[in-house]
Amino acid sequence: MLRARYGRTVIEARELAKHYRVHRRQPGLRAALRSFVRREHVTVRAVDRVSFTIAEGEVVGFLGPNGAGKTTTLKCLTGLLHPTTGAVRVLGHTPHRREPEFLRRISLVMGQRNSLFWDLPAADAFEVNRAIYGIAPGPYRSALEELVDLLDLEPLLHKQVRVLSLGERMRCELAGALLHRPDVLFLDEPTLGLDVNGQAAVRTFLRDYNTRHGATVLLTSHYMGDVTALARRVLVIDHGTLRFDGDLAALVEAHSPHRLVRVTLRETVPAETWAGLGEVSSIDGAVVTLAVPRAETAAIAARLLTTLPVEDVAIEDPPVEEIIRNVFAHA
Amino acid sequence: MRDVLPAYPSLVRSATLVAATYRGRVVLSLLTAFFPLLTMAVWLTVVAEGGPPDGWTTDDFLSYYAAATLLWNLTGDRVVWQWDADMRSGDLSVRLLRPVHPFHQYATSDLGQRLVFLVVLVPALVLAAWLVPGLNYPADPLRLAAVAAALVLAYAVSLLMASTFALIGFWSTQTTNGWLLWWGLGSFASGWVAPLALMPDWLRTAGLVLPFRTTMGFPVELLMGRLDAHQTAYGFAVGLGWLAAFALLYRVAWRFGVRRYQAVAG
Protein backbone atom coordinates (compact mmCIF):
# COMPACT_ATOMS: atom_id res chain seq x y z
CA MET A 1 0.00 0.00 0.00
CA LEU A 2 2.88 2.28 0.92
CA ARG A 3 4.57 1.54 -2.40
CA ALA A 4 1.52 2.74 -4.31
CA ARG A 5 2.24 6.34 -3.28
CA TYR A 6 5.62 6.26 -5.01
CA GLY A 7 6.93 5.82 -8.53
CA ARG A 8 8.91 3.12 -10.25
CA THR A 9 11.38 0.85 -8.50
CA VAL A 10 14.86 2.39 -8.36
CA ILE A 11 16.58 0.04 -5.91
CA GLU A 12 16.24 -3.70 -6.07
CA ALA A 13 18.10 -6.35 -4.09
CA ARG A 14 17.28 -9.95 -4.96
CA GLU A 15 18.64 -12.72 -2.73
CA LEU A 16 21.64 -10.49 -2.04
CA ALA A 17 24.42 -12.19 -0.08
CA LYS A 18 27.87 -10.98 0.86
CA HIS A 19 30.23 -13.36 2.60
CA TYR A 20 33.72 -12.44 3.78
CA ARG A 21 36.61 -14.78 4.36
CA VAL A 22 38.50 -13.40 7.31
CA HIS A 23 41.69 -14.42 9.03
CA ARG A 24 41.20 -15.43 12.67
CA ARG A 25 43.66 -16.16 15.43
CA GLN A 26 43.70 -16.36 19.20
CA PRO A 27 45.55 -13.68 21.19
CA GLY A 28 49.09 -14.27 22.41
CA LEU A 29 52.56 -14.96 21.07
CA ARG A 30 52.11 -18.71 20.58
CA ALA A 31 48.94 -18.19 18.56
CA ALA A 32 50.70 -15.48 16.53
CA LEU A 33 53.57 -17.86 15.70
CA ARG A 34 51.18 -20.69 14.85
CA SER A 35 49.19 -18.34 12.67
CA PHE A 36 52.40 -17.33 10.88
CA VAL A 37 52.80 -20.92 9.70
CA ARG A 38 49.19 -21.99 9.36
CA ARG A 39 46.44 -19.49 8.68
CA GLU A 40 42.92 -20.07 9.92
CA HIS A 41 40.10 -18.45 8.04
CA VAL A 42 36.40 -18.22 8.77
CA THR A 43 33.59 -17.18 6.48
CA VAL A 44 31.42 -14.37 7.82
CA ARG A 45 27.94 -14.13 6.33
CA ALA A 46 27.57 -10.36 6.58
CA VAL A 47 24.44 -10.30 4.41
CA ASP A 48 22.49 -13.44 3.68
CA ARG A 49 19.86 -13.63 0.93
CA VAL A 50 18.28 -10.23 1.47
CA SER A 51 15.56 -9.09 -0.94
CA PHE A 52 13.71 -5.78 -1.11
CA THR A 53 12.76 -3.01 -3.51
CA ILE A 54 12.60 0.72 -2.99
CA ALA A 55 10.55 3.05 -5.15
CA GLU A 56 11.50 6.44 -6.54
CA GLY A 57 11.12 9.19 -3.95
CA GLU A 58 10.81 6.85 -0.96
CA VAL A 59 12.70 7.49 2.26
CA VAL A 60 13.50 4.18 3.91
CA GLY A 61 15.14 3.62 7.28
CA PHE A 62 17.52 0.70 7.58
CA LEU A 63 17.68 -0.56 11.14
CA GLY A 64 19.76 -3.15 12.88
CA PRO A 65 22.29 -3.59 15.67
CA ASN A 66 26.04 -3.23 15.08
CA GLY A 67 27.32 -5.85 12.64
CA ALA A 68 23.80 -6.67 11.42
CA GLY A 69 24.73 -6.09 7.77
CA LYS A 70 23.33 -2.60 7.17
CA THR A 71 26.53 -0.98 5.97
CA THR A 72 27.54 -4.04 3.94
CA THR A 73 24.19 -3.89 2.15
CA LEU A 74 24.68 -0.19 1.51
CA LYS A 75 28.16 -0.89 0.12
CA CYS A 76 26.71 -3.49 -2.25
CA LEU A 77 24.04 -1.04 -3.38
CA THR A 78 26.60 1.66 -4.09
CA GLY A 79 28.97 -0.70 -5.90
CA LEU A 80 31.79 -0.65 -3.35
CA LEU A 81 31.40 -4.38 -2.81
CA HIS A 82 30.74 -7.17 -5.26
CA PRO A 83 27.92 -9.39 -3.98
CA THR A 84 28.88 -13.00 -3.30
CA THR A 85 25.56 -14.15 -4.76
CA GLY A 86 22.28 -12.53 -5.70
CA ALA A 87 21.58 -9.47 -7.79
CA VAL A 88 21.41 -5.75 -7.17
CA ARG A 89 20.02 -3.09 -9.49
CA VAL A 90 20.05 0.62 -8.72
CA LEU A 91 18.62 3.09 -11.24
CA GLY A 92 18.80 0.33 -13.82
CA HIS A 93 22.54 -0.19 -13.27
CA THR A 94 24.50 -3.02 -11.73
CA PRO A 95 26.30 -1.04 -9.02
CA HIS A 96 29.58 -2.96 -8.83
CA ARG A 97 30.28 -2.17 -12.47
CA ARG A 98 30.61 1.42 -11.26
CA GLU A 99 29.73 3.05 -14.56
CA PRO A 100 30.30 6.83 -14.42
CA GLU A 101 26.65 7.42 -15.48
CA PHE A 102 25.56 5.47 -12.40
CA LEU A 103 28.00 7.13 -10.00
CA ARG A 104 26.86 10.58 -11.17
CA ARG A 105 23.32 9.74 -10.03
CA ILE A 106 24.01 8.47 -6.52
CA SER A 107 25.72 9.63 -3.37
CA LEU A 108 26.82 7.83 -0.24
CA VAL A 109 27.34 9.92 2.86
CA MET A 110 29.26 8.10 5.56
CA GLY A 111 29.08 9.78 8.93
CA GLN A 112 32.42 8.45 10.04
CA ARG A 113 34.36 9.12 6.86
CA ASN A 114 35.55 12.33 5.25
CA SER A 115 35.03 12.59 1.51
CA LEU A 116 36.01 16.22 1.02
CA PHE A 117 39.60 17.34 0.49
CA TRP A 118 40.81 17.56 4.08
CA ASP A 119 43.41 20.28 3.56
CA LEU A 120 41.36 22.62 1.37
CA PRO A 121 38.74 25.19 2.31
CA ALA A 122 35.21 23.88 1.79
CA ALA A 123 34.69 26.19 -1.23
CA ASP A 124 37.72 24.67 -3.02
CA ALA A 125 36.62 21.16 -2.06
CA PHE A 126 33.20 21.82 -3.62
CA GLU A 127 34.90 23.10 -6.76
CA VAL A 128 36.77 19.78 -7.02
CA ASN A 129 33.46 17.94 -6.78
CA ARG A 130 32.09 20.17 -9.54
CA ALA A 131 34.93 19.05 -11.80
CA ILE A 132 34.67 15.38 -10.81
CA TYR A 133 30.94 15.22 -11.46
CA GLY A 134 31.16 17.41 -14.56
CA ILE A 135 28.51 19.84 -13.30
CA ALA A 136 27.89 22.74 -15.68
CA PRO A 137 28.50 26.23 -14.20
CA GLY A 138 24.81 27.25 -14.10
CA PRO A 139 23.42 24.19 -12.27
CA TYR A 140 26.50 24.22 -10.01
CA ARG A 141 25.89 27.82 -8.94
CA SER A 142 22.22 27.23 -8.23
CA ALA A 143 22.86 23.95 -6.36
CA LEU A 144 25.61 25.58 -4.30
CA GLU A 145 23.48 28.60 -3.46
CA GLU A 146 20.63 26.38 -2.38
CA LEU A 147 22.85 24.16 -0.23
CA VAL A 148 24.72 27.09 1.32
CA ASP A 149 21.37 28.60 2.23
CA LEU A 150 19.72 25.43 3.56
CA LEU A 151 22.73 24.25 5.51
CA ASP A 152 23.90 27.69 6.61
CA LEU A 153 27.36 27.17 5.12
CA GLU A 154 28.35 30.76 4.35
CA PRO A 155 30.63 31.15 7.42
CA LEU A 156 32.31 27.79 6.67
CA LEU A 157 33.14 28.13 2.99
CA HIS A 158 36.61 29.59 3.47
CA LYS A 159 37.70 27.42 6.38
CA GLN A 160 39.88 24.36 5.87
CA VAL A 161 37.73 21.23 6.10
CA ARG A 162 40.05 19.73 8.74
CA VAL A 163 39.48 22.62 11.18
CA LEU A 164 35.68 22.36 11.06
CA SER A 165 33.77 20.91 14.00
CA LEU A 166 32.08 17.55 13.47
CA GLY A 167 28.68 19.15 12.92
CA GLU A 168 30.07 21.76 10.53
CA ARG A 169 31.96 19.10 8.64
CA MET A 170 28.89 16.93 8.30
CA ARG A 171 26.93 19.88 6.86
CA CYS A 172 29.73 20.40 4.34
CA GLU A 173 29.83 16.66 3.60
CA LEU A 174 26.11 16.74 2.82
CA ALA A 175 26.57 19.75 0.55
CA GLY A 176 29.49 18.09 -1.25
CA ALA A 177 27.47 14.91 -1.69
CA LEU A 178 24.45 16.72 -3.09
CA LEU A 179 26.04 19.27 -5.43
CA HIS A 180 25.42 16.95 -8.37
CA ARG A 181 21.79 16.46 -7.28
CA PRO A 182 21.84 12.67 -6.95
CA ASP A 183 18.64 10.75 -7.62
CA VAL A 184 19.46 8.23 -4.93
CA LEU A 185 21.03 9.16 -1.64
CA PHE A 186 22.52 6.56 0.69
CA LEU A 187 23.15 7.79 4.21
CA ASP A 188 25.20 5.75 6.65
CA GLU A 189 24.91 7.21 10.13
CA PRO A 190 24.70 10.82 8.91
CA THR A 191 24.19 12.24 12.40
CA LEU A 192 26.85 10.15 14.15
CA GLY A 193 28.45 12.16 16.95
CA LEU A 194 26.38 15.29 16.35
CA ASP A 195 24.73 17.16 19.21
CA VAL A 196 20.94 17.50 19.40
CA ASN A 197 20.89 20.72 17.38
CA GLY A 198 23.17 19.26 14.74
CA GLN A 199 21.00 16.17 14.42
CA ALA A 200 17.87 18.28 14.09
CA ALA A 201 19.49 20.49 11.42
CA VAL A 202 20.55 17.47 9.35
CA ARG A 203 17.11 15.83 9.65
CA THR A 204 15.30 19.01 8.64
CA PHE A 205 17.61 19.44 5.68
CA LEU A 206 17.21 15.85 4.48
CA ARG A 207 13.42 16.00 4.72
CA ASP A 208 13.48 19.25 2.81
CA TYR A 209 15.83 17.85 0.16
CA ASN A 210 13.64 14.81 -0.37
CA THR A 211 10.55 17.01 -0.76
CA ARG A 212 12.21 19.47 -3.15
CA HIS A 213 13.98 17.03 -5.41
CA GLY A 214 12.07 13.79 -4.97
CA ALA A 215 15.31 11.95 -4.24
CA THR A 216 15.14 8.37 -3.02
CA VAL A 217 16.82 8.01 0.37
CA LEU A 218 18.04 4.91 2.18
CA LEU A 219 19.21 5.75 5.65
CA THR A 220 20.95 3.80 8.39
CA SER A 221 21.21 5.30 11.82
CA HIS A 222 21.56 4.31 15.43
CA TYR A 223 19.51 7.36 16.38
CA MET A 224 15.88 6.35 16.14
CA GLY A 225 15.05 10.04 15.97
CA ASP A 226 16.61 10.11 12.47
CA VAL A 227 14.45 7.25 11.32
CA THR A 228 11.17 8.39 12.87
CA ALA A 229 11.71 11.94 11.57
CA LEU A 230 12.49 10.90 8.02
CA ALA A 231 11.29 7.43 7.13
CA ARG A 232 7.81 6.03 6.89
CA ARG A 233 9.06 2.63 5.87
CA VAL A 234 11.76 0.62 7.62
CA LEU A 235 13.87 -2.41 6.83
CA VAL A 236 15.06 -4.28 9.90
CA ILE A 237 18.10 -6.49 9.47
CA ASP A 238 19.82 -8.70 11.99
CA HIS A 239 22.64 -11.23 11.54
CA GLY A 240 22.55 -10.46 7.83
CA THR A 241 18.90 -11.49 7.44
CA LEU A 242 15.97 -9.19 6.77
CA ARG A 243 13.54 -9.41 9.73
CA PHE A 244 10.98 -6.82 8.75
CA ASP A 245 10.11 -4.71 5.74
CA GLY A 246 7.18 -2.35 5.99
CA ASP A 247 5.53 0.67 7.47
CA LEU A 248 7.16 1.98 10.65
CA ALA A 249 3.67 2.16 12.20
CA ALA A 250 3.07 -1.50 11.36
CA LEU A 251 6.37 -2.43 13.01
CA VAL A 252 5.32 -0.59 16.13
CA GLU A 253 1.92 -2.28 16.10
CA ALA A 254 3.33 -5.73 15.49
CA HIS A 255 5.99 -5.60 18.15
CA SER A 256 4.36 -3.52 20.83
CA PRO A 257 1.14 -5.02 22.19
CA HIS A 258 0.77 -2.05 24.56
CA ARG A 259 0.28 1.68 24.25
CA LEU A 260 1.12 4.25 26.89
CA VAL A 261 -1.69 6.32 28.42
CA ARG A 262 -0.36 9.31 30.33
CA VAL A 263 -2.93 10.71 32.77
CA THR A 264 -2.53 14.06 34.51
CA LEU A 265 -4.81 14.20 37.59
CA ARG A 266 -6.21 17.22 39.40
CA GLU A 267 -5.77 15.37 42.71
CA THR A 268 -4.03 12.19 43.84
CA VAL A 269 -5.97 8.92 43.97
CA PRO A 270 -5.34 5.66 45.87
CA ALA A 271 -2.99 3.17 44.21
CA GLU A 272 -5.71 0.50 43.94
CA THR A 273 -7.64 2.79 41.56
CA TRP A 274 -5.46 1.55 38.70
CA ALA A 275 -6.26 -2.13 39.20
CA GLY A 276 -7.92 -3.47 36.08
CA LEU A 277 -7.07 -0.42 34.01
CA GLY A 278 -3.55 -1.36 33.02
CA GLU A 279 -0.01 -1.80 34.24
CA VAL A 280 1.35 1.25 36.02
CA SER A 281 4.49 2.17 34.14
CA SER A 282 5.43 5.21 36.23
CA ILE A 283 4.02 7.68 38.75
CA ASP A 284 5.44 11.19 38.82
CA GLY A 285 3.35 13.27 41.23
CA ALA A 286 0.00 13.79 39.57
CA VAL A 287 1.15 12.27 36.29
CA VAL A 288 0.57 8.52 35.98
CA THR A 289 1.63 6.47 32.95
CA LEU A 290 -0.21 3.24 32.26
CA ALA A 291 0.72 0.53 29.77
CA VAL A 292 -2.58 -0.71 28.36
CA PRO A 293 -3.40 -3.40 25.80
CA ARG A 294 -3.44 -1.77 22.36
CA ALA A 295 -6.97 -2.97 21.51
CA GLU A 296 -8.44 -1.57 24.72
CA THR A 297 -6.76 1.84 24.63
CA ALA A 298 -9.84 3.85 23.65
CA ALA A 299 -12.14 2.13 26.13
CA ILE A 300 -9.71 2.55 29.01
CA ALA A 301 -9.12 6.20 28.17
CA ALA A 302 -12.88 6.77 28.20
CA ARG A 303 -13.19 5.04 31.59
CA LEU A 304 -10.42 7.17 33.02
CA LEU A 305 -12.11 10.35 31.84
CA THR A 306 -15.47 9.41 33.33
CA THR A 307 -14.35 7.91 36.64
CA LEU A 308 -11.32 9.98 37.71
CA PRO A 309 -10.57 13.70 38.23
CA VAL A 310 -8.59 13.92 35.00
CA GLU A 311 -7.00 17.15 33.81
CA ASP A 312 -5.36 15.70 30.69
CA VAL A 313 -4.91 12.38 28.88
CA ALA A 314 -2.23 11.63 26.28
CA ILE A 315 -1.94 8.38 24.35
CA GLU A 316 1.32 7.41 22.69
CA ASP A 317 3.31 4.45 21.47
CA PRO A 318 6.31 3.28 23.46
CA PRO A 319 9.64 4.74 22.23
CA VAL A 320 10.67 3.12 18.94
CA GLU A 321 14.07 2.27 20.46
CA GLU A 322 12.26 0.00 22.91
CA ILE A 323 10.28 -1.65 20.15
CA ILE A 324 13.36 -2.25 18.05
CA ARG A 325 15.11 -3.73 21.08
CA ASN A 326 12.13 -6.11 21.39
CA VAL A 327 12.39 -7.06 17.72
CA PHE A 328 16.06 -7.96 18.09
CA ALA A 329 15.54 -9.63 21.45
CA HIS A 330 12.97 -11.97 19.91
CA ALA A 331 14.83 -12.52 16.66
CA MET B 1 39.07 8.91 -20.96
CA ARG B 2 37.19 11.67 -22.81
CA ASP B 3 34.89 11.99 -19.77
CA VAL B 4 37.81 12.22 -17.41
CA LEU B 5 40.01 14.79 -19.15
CA PRO B 6 37.84 17.84 -18.30
CA ALA B 7 38.28 17.03 -14.60
CA TYR B 8 42.10 16.92 -14.85
CA PRO B 9 42.85 20.67 -14.50
CA SER B 10 40.69 21.02 -11.38
CA LEU B 11 42.05 17.85 -9.81
CA VAL B 12 45.67 18.82 -10.53
CA ARG B 13 45.00 22.33 -9.25
CA SER B 14 43.49 21.03 -6.02
CA ALA B 15 46.48 18.74 -5.44
CA THR B 16 48.82 21.69 -6.01
CA LEU B 17 46.81 23.74 -3.52
CA VAL B 18 47.03 20.90 -0.99
CA ALA B 19 50.78 20.58 -1.56
CA ALA B 20 51.28 24.30 -1.10
CA THR B 21 49.14 24.48 2.06
CA TYR B 22 51.89 23.68 4.54
CA ARG B 23 54.97 25.86 4.07
CA GLY B 24 57.27 23.81 6.31
CA ARG B 25 56.45 20.63 4.42
CA VAL B 26 57.08 22.34 1.08
CA VAL B 27 60.51 23.60 2.19
CA LEU B 28 61.58 20.22 3.62
CA SER B 29 60.31 18.39 0.55
CA LEU B 30 62.19 20.76 -1.72
CA LEU B 31 65.40 19.88 0.10
CA THR B 32 64.84 16.18 -0.60
CA ALA B 33 64.21 17.10 -4.23
CA PHE B 34 67.96 17.54 -4.63
CA PHE B 35 68.83 14.08 -3.29
CA PRO B 36 70.59 12.92 -6.53
CA LEU B 37 73.21 15.61 -5.89
CA LEU B 38 74.44 13.40 -3.02
CA THR B 39 75.06 10.54 -5.47
CA MET B 40 76.77 13.07 -7.71
CA ALA B 41 79.07 14.06 -4.81
CA VAL B 42 79.96 10.40 -4.22
CA TRP B 43 80.84 9.87 -7.89
CA LEU B 44 82.83 13.12 -8.09
CA THR B 45 84.87 11.95 -5.09
CA VAL B 46 85.45 8.53 -6.67
CA VAL B 47 86.46 10.15 -9.97
CA ALA B 48 88.76 12.64 -8.21
CA GLU B 49 90.58 9.82 -6.39
CA GLY B 50 90.63 7.04 -9.01
CA GLY B 51 90.25 8.95 -12.25
CA PRO B 52 87.18 8.86 -14.53
CA PRO B 53 86.10 5.60 -16.23
CA ASP B 54 86.52 5.19 -19.99
CA GLY B 55 84.29 7.52 -22.00
CA TRP B 56 83.25 9.61 -19.01
CA THR B 57 84.62 12.86 -17.62
CA THR B 58 84.03 14.69 -14.36
CA ASP B 59 81.79 17.11 -16.26
CA ASP B 60 79.75 14.17 -17.59
CA PHE B 61 78.96 13.04 -14.02
CA LEU B 62 78.08 16.62 -13.13
CA SER B 63 75.71 16.87 -16.11
CA TYR B 64 74.29 13.37 -15.56
CA TYR B 65 73.26 13.82 -11.93
CA ALA B 66 72.12 17.41 -12.33
CA ALA B 67 69.67 16.16 -14.98
CA ALA B 68 68.87 13.14 -12.79
CA THR B 69 67.54 15.59 -10.20
CA LEU B 70 64.75 16.44 -12.62
CA LEU B 71 63.86 12.75 -13.11
CA TRP B 72 64.00 12.13 -9.36
CA ASN B 73 61.13 14.58 -9.12
CA LEU B 74 59.30 13.27 -12.14
CA THR B 75 58.41 9.85 -10.85
CA GLY B 76 54.97 8.55 -9.99
CA ASP B 77 56.06 6.08 -7.31
CA ARG B 78 54.43 8.09 -4.52
CA VAL B 79 51.06 6.68 -5.62
CA VAL B 80 52.02 3.26 -4.23
CA TRP B 81 51.94 4.68 -0.70
CA GLN B 82 48.66 6.48 -1.33
CA TRP B 83 46.95 3.37 -2.73
CA ASP B 84 48.30 1.26 0.11
CA ALA B 85 47.14 3.66 2.84
CA ASP B 86 43.70 4.05 1.27
CA MET B 87 43.18 0.31 0.82
CA ARG B 88 44.11 -0.38 4.43
CA SER B 89 42.00 2.41 5.91
CA GLY B 90 39.06 1.96 3.56
CA ASP B 91 39.44 5.51 2.21
CA LEU B 92 39.56 3.97 -1.26
CA SER B 93 35.77 3.73 -0.89
CA VAL B 94 35.49 7.50 -1.19
CA ARG B 95 37.47 7.43 -4.44
CA LEU B 96 35.53 4.46 -5.80
CA LEU B 97 32.28 6.34 -5.38
CA ARG B 98 33.41 9.18 -7.64
CA PRO B 99 32.72 8.97 -11.37
CA VAL B 100 36.44 9.31 -12.10
CA HIS B 101 38.52 6.12 -11.93
CA PRO B 102 40.81 6.08 -8.85
CA PHE B 103 43.84 5.81 -11.16
CA HIS B 104 43.14 9.32 -12.44
CA GLN B 105 42.52 10.62 -8.93
CA TYR B 106 45.89 9.35 -7.73
CA ALA B 107 47.62 10.45 -10.93
CA THR B 108 46.30 14.01 -10.71
CA SER B 109 47.10 14.14 -7.01
CA ASP B 110 50.68 13.15 -7.80
CA LEU B 111 50.95 15.51 -10.76
CA GLY B 112 49.69 18.42 -8.70
CA GLN B 113 52.31 17.79 -6.04
CA ARG B 114 55.04 17.39 -8.66
CA LEU B 115 54.15 20.79 -10.09
CA VAL B 116 55.16 22.46 -6.83
CA PHE B 117 58.63 20.93 -7.15
CA LEU B 118 58.97 21.51 -10.85
CA VAL B 119 58.12 25.20 -10.53
CA VAL B 120 61.24 25.55 -8.37
CA LEU B 121 63.41 22.89 -9.93
CA VAL B 122 63.14 23.63 -13.66
CA PRO B 123 64.23 27.30 -13.41
CA ALA B 124 67.00 26.24 -10.98
CA LEU B 125 68.28 23.65 -13.49
CA VAL B 126 68.07 26.06 -16.44
CA LEU B 127 69.98 28.65 -14.43
CA ALA B 128 72.54 26.05 -13.33
CA ALA B 129 73.02 24.82 -16.92
CA TRP B 130 73.73 28.38 -17.94
CA LEU B 131 75.96 29.43 -15.05
CA VAL B 132 77.71 26.31 -13.75
CA PRO B 133 80.85 25.43 -15.72
CA GLY B 134 80.94 21.77 -16.69
CA LEU B 135 77.20 21.32 -17.12
CA ASN B 136 76.87 20.56 -20.77
CA TYR B 137 73.59 19.87 -22.59
CA PRO B 138 73.61 20.34 -26.38
CA ALA B 139 70.86 22.85 -27.18
CA ASP B 140 69.64 21.28 -30.43
CA PRO B 141 65.87 22.01 -30.81
CA LEU B 142 65.08 18.56 -32.23
CA ARG B 143 66.92 16.88 -29.39
CA LEU B 144 65.22 19.10 -26.81
CA ALA B 145 61.82 18.17 -28.28
CA ALA B 146 62.78 14.49 -28.02
CA VAL B 147 63.90 15.06 -24.43
CA ALA B 148 60.53 16.65 -23.61
CA ALA B 149 58.78 13.60 -25.08
CA ALA B 150 61.12 11.27 -23.17
CA LEU B 151 60.33 13.11 -19.92
CA VAL B 152 56.59 12.65 -20.48
CA LEU B 153 57.20 8.99 -21.29
CA ALA B 154 59.37 8.61 -18.18
CA TYR B 155 56.63 9.96 -15.96
CA ALA B 156 53.89 7.94 -17.67
CA VAL B 157 55.81 4.64 -17.41
CA SER B 158 56.80 5.34 -13.82
CA LEU B 159 53.21 6.21 -12.86
CA LEU B 160 51.66 3.21 -14.60
CA MET B 161 54.32 0.85 -13.23
CA ALA B 162 53.73 2.13 -9.68
CA SER B 163 49.94 2.07 -10.07
CA THR B 164 50.00 -1.49 -11.38
CA PHE B 165 52.23 -2.55 -8.52
CA ALA B 166 49.89 -0.80 -6.05
CA LEU B 167 47.03 -3.07 -7.11
CA ILE B 168 48.85 -5.97 -5.43
CA GLY B 169 47.28 -4.40 -2.34
CA PHE B 170 44.02 -6.15 -3.24
CA TRP B 171 45.78 -9.47 -2.54
CA SER B 172 48.54 -8.62 -0.08
CA THR B 173 49.30 -6.12 2.65
CA GLN B 174 52.96 -5.95 1.67
CA THR B 175 52.71 -3.63 -1.32
CA THR B 176 55.04 -0.91 -0.08
CA ASN B 177 57.72 -3.36 1.06
CA GLY B 178 57.46 -5.18 -2.25
CA TRP B 179 57.70 -1.90 -4.11
CA LEU B 180 60.83 -0.85 -2.20
CA LEU B 181 62.47 -4.16 -3.17
CA TRP B 182 61.35 -3.74 -6.80
CA TRP B 183 62.52 -0.13 -6.92
CA GLY B 184 65.81 -0.98 -5.19
CA LEU B 185 66.63 -3.71 -7.72
CA GLY B 186 65.44 -1.46 -10.51
CA SER B 187 67.72 1.38 -9.45
CA PHE B 188 70.71 -0.64 -10.73
CA ALA B 189 69.10 -0.99 -14.15
CA SER B 190 67.63 2.50 -14.34
CA GLY B 191 70.84 4.49 -14.01
CA TRP B 192 70.29 5.75 -10.47
CA VAL B 193 73.18 3.93 -8.84
CA ALA B 194 75.49 4.66 -11.76
CA PRO B 195 75.08 5.46 -15.45
CA LEU B 196 74.11 2.25 -17.23
CA ALA B 197 77.15 2.59 -19.50
CA LEU B 198 79.38 1.91 -16.49
CA MET B 199 77.54 -1.23 -15.40
CA PRO B 200 78.66 -4.82 -16.21
CA ASP B 201 77.67 -6.04 -19.68
CA TRP B 202 74.91 -8.39 -18.49
CA LEU B 203 73.27 -5.66 -16.44
CA ARG B 204 73.61 -3.13 -19.25
CA THR B 205 71.98 -5.57 -21.66
CA ALA B 206 69.17 -6.30 -19.22
CA GLY B 207 68.77 -2.58 -18.46
CA LEU B 208 68.19 -1.83 -22.12
CA VAL B 209 65.05 -3.99 -22.21
CA LEU B 210 63.70 -3.53 -18.66
CA PRO B 211 61.31 -0.64 -17.90
CA PHE B 212 63.55 1.14 -15.38
CA ARG B 213 65.89 2.90 -17.82
CA THR B 214 62.92 4.66 -19.44
CA THR B 215 62.18 6.35 -16.12
CA MET B 216 65.70 7.76 -15.62
CA GLY B 217 68.75 6.86 -17.70
CA PHE B 218 67.17 7.23 -21.14
CA PRO B 219 65.97 10.88 -20.86
CA VAL B 220 69.19 11.91 -19.11
CA GLU B 221 71.46 10.31 -21.71
CA LEU B 222 69.31 11.85 -24.45
CA LEU B 223 69.62 15.31 -22.87
CA MET B 224 73.38 14.89 -22.63
CA GLY B 225 73.58 14.06 -26.34
CA ARG B 226 75.00 10.57 -25.73
CA LEU B 227 72.45 8.73 -27.89
CA ASP B 228 72.37 8.57 -31.68
CA ALA B 229 69.14 8.42 -33.72
CA HIS B 230 69.00 4.62 -33.63
CA GLN B 231 69.56 4.43 -29.86
CA THR B 232 66.97 7.16 -29.36
CA ALA B 233 64.36 5.33 -31.42
CA TYR B 234 65.14 2.11 -29.55
CA GLY B 235 64.73 3.90 -26.19
CA PHE B 236 61.33 5.25 -27.21
CA ALA B 237 60.22 1.88 -28.54
CA VAL B 238 61.13 0.12 -25.28
CA GLY B 239 59.40 2.85 -23.24
CA LEU B 240 56.22 2.76 -25.31
CA GLY B 241 56.21 -1.03 -25.20
CA TRP B 242 56.35 -0.99 -21.41
CA LEU B 243 53.70 1.72 -21.28
CA ALA B 244 51.34 -0.54 -23.24
CA ALA B 245 52.32 -3.58 -21.17
CA PHE B 246 51.67 -1.82 -17.85
CA ALA B 247 48.39 -0.38 -19.15
CA LEU B 248 47.26 -3.91 -20.01
CA LEU B 249 48.52 -5.36 -16.73
CA TYR B 250 46.80 -2.59 -14.82
CA ARG B 251 43.46 -3.30 -16.50
CA VAL B 252 43.66 -7.02 -15.80
CA ALA B 253 44.80 -6.54 -12.19
CA TRP B 254 42.07 -3.96 -11.59
CA ARG B 255 39.37 -6.17 -13.04
CA PHE B 256 40.16 -9.06 -10.74
CA GLY B 257 41.47 -7.07 -7.78
CA VAL B 258 38.62 -4.67 -7.18
CA ARG B 259 36.27 -7.62 -6.60
CA ARG B 260 38.34 -8.49 -3.57
CA TYR B 261 38.09 -5.02 -2.04
CA GLN B 262 36.44 -5.24 1.37
CA ALA B 263 35.78 -1.52 1.99
CA VAL B 264 36.81 -1.89 5.62
CA ALA B 265 36.14 0.49 8.51
CA GLY B 266 32.65 1.75 8.05
From TrEMBL, chain A:
Repressor listed as a keyword: no
Gene Ontology BP, a term: response to antibiotic
Domain ABC transporter: 31-264
Pfam families: ABC_tran (PF00005)
Membrane topology: Peripheral membrane protein
Record localization: Cell membrane
Name of the protein this chain belongs to: ABC transporter
Organism of derivation: Micromonospora craterilacus
Automatic annotation (TrEMBL), chain B:
InterPro entries: ABC-2_transporter-like (IPR010390)
Keyword Lipid metabolism: no
Origin: domain of life: Bacteria
Keywords recorded for this protein, A-Z: Membrane, Transmembrane, Transmembrane helix
Membrane spanning stretches: 26-46, 61-81, 115-132, 144-168, 180-198, 233-253
Keyword Transmembrane helix: yes
Pfam families associated with the record: ABC2_membrane_6
Descriptive protein name: ABC transporter permease
Organism of origin: Micromonospora craterilacus
Lineage of the species this protein comes from: Bacteria, Bacillati, Actinomycetota, Actinomycetes, Micromonosporales
